[in-house]
Structures are given as structure tokens and as C-alpha cells.
Write a structure and sequence with these properties.
Strand content: 5-15%
Strand order of the largest sheet: 1-2-3-4-5-6-7-8-9
CATH superfamily: Aldolase class I
Structural class: alpha/beta
Radius of gyration: 19 Å
Number of helices: 12
Helix content: 25-40%
Mean pLDDT: 89
Number of domains: 1
CATH topology: TIM Barrel
Number of strands: 9
Distance between the termini: 47 Å
CATH architecture: Alpha-Beta Barrel
Largest sheet: 9 strands, mixed
Shape: globular
Length: about 350
């Protein structure tokens, strides 16, 4: 375990933050001083994928602005119900890489465990918005099967906790699972993919840091931040707490129309992340999940954006531009000269 200063900056517990999340479009309009007629057109799109957003995240939105880049990430819109060719409920064909409940094995040397079936925030572009979490909630007995699978495949050196958001699970469960993974000799890296350090930064507390750094495993946290406006003082504290605990912190961003399709915004995001000890990792082309087509950017636009980003940033602050292609056993890099369609 790595010594560190006890965290004292948190205003409330992460559990109370989740309980107070906004789930009503009417309430969201009221908090943001918006005309309901401007934003209620997407009510029908919440039937299968409800609105959910923590108040800390809402507090970073500009009141009275229906085009706020944080609001647009969580606001249900009528276009989500449109059917587009090439978009599907399982755009990455993950069902084919799901050998046992709760485990995905898509890439050489690493597996992903779907520890939780929900998130603290429902991002409207989520590529797993239609994922069958009800079939991938194995419970404690199921995790034994997943752990047996990892033991039997000695080429697996990294285990990734994902979901949903794995940090919605309790610290006691995560500590138990982390130790069980650490007991498998050929696993050396524990990676966690989570939006919680950004949307509910109080989740990064002493209990979490204790189990995350309390085994021989090398811990990595990959967070998901799309816009510099998402990083306020408390998010900065959370990122710095991870850095002080010697946890490798990386960020992945999804390119989204009208939200971050601006090289200046993306450059500012890289600088802000680095200021708080987090390195830009991936810049993703949108996964073609049904309901998200209105966020997509044309390949020529992506090419121009990335070219501008390369011109503005030093190499260590430039995230890798990638696209995930179903069945390809790695993230496919996209070059400025050869953006895939």
C-alpha cells in the first residue's frame, strides 16, 4: 500500500451523489433554467435508455444554454429513435467475445469483466446502451467461473474491470475481486475503465485507493472525459489523488458532433488533463450504436481535426486516433492520411 495524505476535499459521499442524480427532463430544465419546449422532444427516447446525470456534472453546465457541450452528452433527443443503416445495437459484435457471463475476451493478453450493469451517468452515445447486462451479471459464484477462465489462459496478463461502470460496485466487493485476480500469478496489471472520477469525483476516496494499490498488481485507471469543461476543482483533486497513489491515469475521448469537434477544445482538454496528472490515451471515432448517429462526424472532418491537433500539441499530449472494428483484435489506428469510412 502506498502512503498518501488522507483525502479531505470531498463534500459528500459518492453514494449520496448517486442517489440524488437527476432522472427527470423537467427537473433538468428547471435546474438549468431552460425552456422545456427546447429540450423535451426526446422524451420517448428514454423508454429503453433513461436520463441519468449526477448533479455535480449538471453544476458544470451553463445555465440557460441548450447547446452546452456537457448537456448535449446526456440530453435525450428525438433523433435517437431514427434508424440508420450501418448502426446496430451491438456495433462491436461483443456477443461473439462473451464466452461466459461477465467476461469479454476480445484482445490478446487481456480480458474484460463487466463488474456492473449500469453507470453513474447515461451518455447518449454509449456503445453499450443496448448491452444485455441482465445476462452478464454472474454474482459471486459467476466470478469464480470468470477467474477460472483467467487461470486457465496463462497468456492473460491484464484484467480490465468495466461495465457499465465498475466503480459502482462496493469497495468490499472490488477489494475481494482485486485480491482474487492478484492471486493469479500470470496477471500483472489491473485496469479500470470508469467515468466516475469525472462525473462523481468523490468516488476516489481512501477506501478505493487502499484496495487499488494494496496488491502486487500494477493499477491503471482509464477515465472518460470529452470536454475540458468537465474538469472542475474536485475532478482535479480526484485525478491528483490517483497520481499521488502512483496509479497510472489515462483518458479516452469520443469525438462528438457539436460537443468537441474543435481542435482548440481538444487541445485544451489534453493540457487540462496533463495538469492534473492524467495522460491523453485514445481519441475514438464514434462507435455506430443505434441511437447515436447524430453525434457522428464525417471522415474528412475527423482528418482535419486531427491534423490541427497535431499542429497544436506536443506529441506526448496527442491522443491516439482510433476506431474499433468488430472482429479486429485491436483498436485500429486512423492516420491523418487514411481515415477509414
Amino acid at each position: 500500500m502506498i502512503p498518501r495524505t488522507t483525502i479531505k476535499w470531498q463534500a459528500e459521499t459518492w453514494q449520496s451523489s448517486l442517489k440524488s442524480a437527476i432522472t427527470s427532463l423537467v427537473e433538468l430544465c428547471d435546474v438549468l433554467a431552460l425552456d422545456p419546449n427546447q429540450v423535451l422532444s426526446g422524451e420517448n427516447s428514454t423508454a429503453d435508455f433513461p436520463l441519468k446525470v449526477p448533479r455535480e456534472f449538471v453544476n458544470r453546465m451553463e445555465k440557460g444554454n441548450p447547446r452546452d457541450p456537457l448537456l448535449l452528452q446526456v440530453l435525450p433527443v428525438a433523433q435517437e429513435l431514427d434508424i440508420h443503416p450501418g448502426y446496430s445495437q451491438d456495433p462491436l459484435k461483443e456477443h461473439a467475445a462473451n464466452p461466459i457471463p461477465g467476461l469479454l475476451h476480445k484482445y490478446h493478453g487481456r480480458v474484460l469483466l463487466t463488474v456492473a450493469g449500469s453507470c453513474a451517468i447515461n451518455c447518449r452515445y454509449c456503445f453499450r446502451r443496448h448491452f444485455p447486462y441482465q445476462d452478464n451479471n454472474p454474482g459471486r459464484q459467476g466470478w469464480h467461473k470468470a477467474l477460472d477462465y483467467i487461470r486457465e489462459h496463462d497468456d492473460i496478463s491484464e484484467v480490465i474491470l468495466s461495465g457499465g461502470d465498475p466503480l459502482l460496485a462496493s469497495d468490499s466487493l472490488l477489494a475481494e475481486l482485486c485480491q482474487a485476480i492478484a492471486d493469479i500469478p500470470h496477471v500483472t496489471i489491473l485496469r479500470i475503465h470508469s467515468r466516475l472520477p469525472i462525473v462523481t469525483p468523490s468516488r476516489i476516496n481512501d477506501k478505493l485507493l487502499n484496495w487499488l494499490t494494496g496488491t502486487r498488481l500494477q493499477p491503471v485507471v482509464v477515465m472518460h472525459c470529452n470536454h475540458p469543461q468537465e474538469i472542475d476543482t474536485e475532478v482535479g483533486h480526484a485525478l491528483q489523488a490517483l497520481q499521488q497513489a502512483n496509479v497510472t491515469s489515462l483518458n479516452q475521448t469520443v469525438l462528438l458532433r457539436d460537443i468537441n469537434d474543435n481542435a482548440g477544445v481538444l487541445a485544451q482538454l489534453s493540457h487540462t488533463l496533463f495538469k492534473h496528472g492524467c495522460l491523453p490515451y485514445y481519441l475514438h471515432q464514434l462507435d455506430p450504436v443505434q441511437g447515436s448517429a447524430h453525434f457522428a462526424l464525417e471522415p474528412t472532418r475527423i482528418r482535419a481535426l486531427y491534423d490541427a491537433l497535431l499542429r497544436q500539441l506536443p506529441g506526448y499530449l496527442v491522443p491516439k486516433l482510433v476506431k474499433e472494428i468488430a472482429g479486429v483484435p485491436y483498436k485500429s489506428p486512423l492516420s491523418v492520411d487514411g481515415i477509414y469510412s
